[in-house]
Write a structure and sequence with these properties.
The complex is a heterodimer of chains A (75) and B (367). With 75 residues, chain A is an alpha+beta fold. Chain A has one domain: SH3 type barrels, CATH 2.30.30.140. Chain A contains one helix and five strands, in the order E-E-E-E-E-H. The longest helix of chain A has 19 residues. Chain B is an alpha/beta fold and 367 residues long. Chain B folds into three domains: 130 residues, Rossmann fold (3-Layer(aba) Sandwich); 150 residues, Rossmann fold (3-Layer(aba) Sandwich); 45 residues, no CATH class. In chain B, the strands form three sheets. Chain B has a five-stranded parallel β-sheet with strand order 2-1-7-8-9. Chain B has a four-stranded parallel β-sheet with strand order 4-3-5-6, sandwiched between helices. In chain B, helix 2 packs parallel to helix 17 and helix 8 packs across helix 13. Chain B starts with 9 loop residues before the first helix and ends in a 9-residue tail after the last helix. The chains are: A alpha+beta (75), B alpha/beta (367). At the A-B interface, strand 4, strand 5 and helix 1 of A face helix 1, helix 7, helix 8, helix 10 and helix 12 of B.
């Protein structure tokens, strides 16, 4: 129920947006994320974008995970 | 970056698992509140990846599962009224109520339709002006704003045949109820990522402060969950419980202000009835008087027989984290996804469905 998937915004029309994931397109509400722009990824939950995915934070997390993997591989 | 595969990398997962094993010295019991987490944990074999010191317990975070039988009976009764269309998220239709299910009465001719979004329910109302369209409003804080938005849209566009049966539930109050009961001793909570997208991290702060229980907000990919477990174990080992966000690409401390505003505009806080837990004060959302014309509870009072729980079903215990599906006598024998006895086997977020689908051989009872 609280499932949400990242989808990319293709175009915006008022408080709705055309989004795409793996070739599938769907019109969604961006009423909760008025800051969303074309090209952004949003988390989509039951037809509504609930947040804009923060790409800088995602990169930070991945960087940390790579450091952890590298460190823990040292014998 | 697609924000999916990047967080499923096997090498990085093994790195996190090694780190958890390196700093986990004492047994800890963690509860993943959200059923989405339970499914990911079993599906990706995370319980086998973390050291034996880390025990994972499934919590009440499955909206279909926690819907009380009495509330489901009400939805079934509404569906049998004349000119009624019931719209609902998919899993609800298969959950057995006391005397029937939405699926069974649909087979008998009731108009029950599965929708993906509250927007679809509104469209059905617009297309059927002579019918009364009720949306069964289950869900946590993630979903509540979408239900609020549908009521506001119905109000704005004067869609007067649209109603919501508000069964929405709130996460922090039920966490408090579980901790107050003391039934299951917890060291840490894997806090629900998408609930937290809406409410932020502040509403959990009473948990480490008042109960000494660590809280880390997690995303739903395997690396997210492992990172969350790593942070929980570290907090517990250091005896420094606090609220941390291990899902910063989705969750901000303040949450989604716009979604919270809409929720507050439409709903006020009241008691809610939880399967297996009972009435929890302050854990539900009631439609405000200003919008009561859309409240199915007010518009269609129905008389109900007392609710009956399925015999032998331990969903209630499983929802509280007091038992695992393996401790239920019915699991996999009488109760299966094809013929579910309780909601935890029906729902795509239910713990029993997760154990049934993804349980490792050592998790499963003998024939």
């Amino acid at each position: 129920m609280c499932l949400a998937v990242p989808v990319r915004i293709v175009s915006i029309d008022g408080d709705e947006a055309e989004t795409e994931i793996a070739g599938v397109r769907r019109r969604v509400s961006i009423a909760f994320t008025p800051e969303a722009k074309v090209g952004d990824y949003v988390l989509l939950h039951t037809g509504y974008a609930i947040t804009v995915v923060d790409e800088a934070e995602a990169r930070e997390t991945l960087k940390l995970l790579k450091e952890i993997a590298n460190l823990s591989e040292v014998p | 970056m697609k924000f999916l595969e990047e967080f499923q990398d096997a090498r990085l997962a093994r790195g996190l698992a090694r780190r958890i094993a390196q700093h986990s010295t004492k047994p800890v019991r963690l509860m993943e509140f959200c059923g989405g987490h339970t499914h990911a944990i079993l599906r990706y074999g995370i319980r086998q990846l973390v050291p034996k010191t880390v025990e994972m317990r499934s919590g009440p975070g499955c909206p279909v599962c926690v819907t009380a039988t009495a509330d489901l009976d009400k939805a079934i009764a509404l569906a049998q009224l004349p000119d009624m269309v019931i719209t609902t998220f998919g899993d609800m239709v298969r959950v057995p109520g006391s005397y029937s299910s939405l699926q069974r009465i649909k087979a008998d001719g009731a108009d029950v339709r599965i929708v993906y979004s509250t927007m679809d329910a509104l469209e059905i109302a617009k297309a059927n002006p002579t019918k009364k369209v009720v949306f069964i409003g289950i869900g946590f804080e993630t979903t509540a704003p979408t239900i609020a938005a549908s009521i506001l849209k119905a109000c704005l566009e004067k869609i007067e045949n649209f109603y919501v049966l508000s069964l929405n539930k709130l996460t922090p109050p039920v966490m408090k109820a579980l901790l107050d009961s003391g039934e299951v001793k917890l060291d840490g909570i894997v806090c629900p990522g998408h609930v937290s997208v809406i409410i932020g991290s502040h509403p959990y702060e009473f948990i480490p402060r008042d109960y000494g229980v660590a809280c880390v907000i997690s995303g739903f990919e395997p690396l997210d969950i492992l990172l969350c477990i790593d942070k929980l174990v570290e907090q517990i080992e250091k005896r420094e419980p606090r609220v941390e966000i291990a899902y910063p690409r989705g969750v901000k401390p303040e949450g989604n202000k716009r979604a919270k505003q809409l929720m507050e505009e439409v709903f006020e806080i009241g008691a809610a009835n939880w399967r297996g837990i009972g009435i929890v004060p302050g854990s539900g959302l009631i439609i405000r008087k200003q919008y009561e014309q859309f409240d199915a509870d007010k518009a269609f009072p129905v008389k109900l027989e007392p609710a009956k729980e399925p015999k032998g079903c331990r969903c209630g215990d499983i929802i509280r984290g007091a038992a695992t599906p393996l401790e239920c006598q019915l699991f996999r024998k009488v109760c299966t996804p094809d013929s579910p006895v309780g909601p935890c086997m029906v729902s795509s977020e239910g713990a029993c469905a997760a154990y049934y689908l993804y349980g490792a051989p050592e998790d499963l009872p003998g024939p």
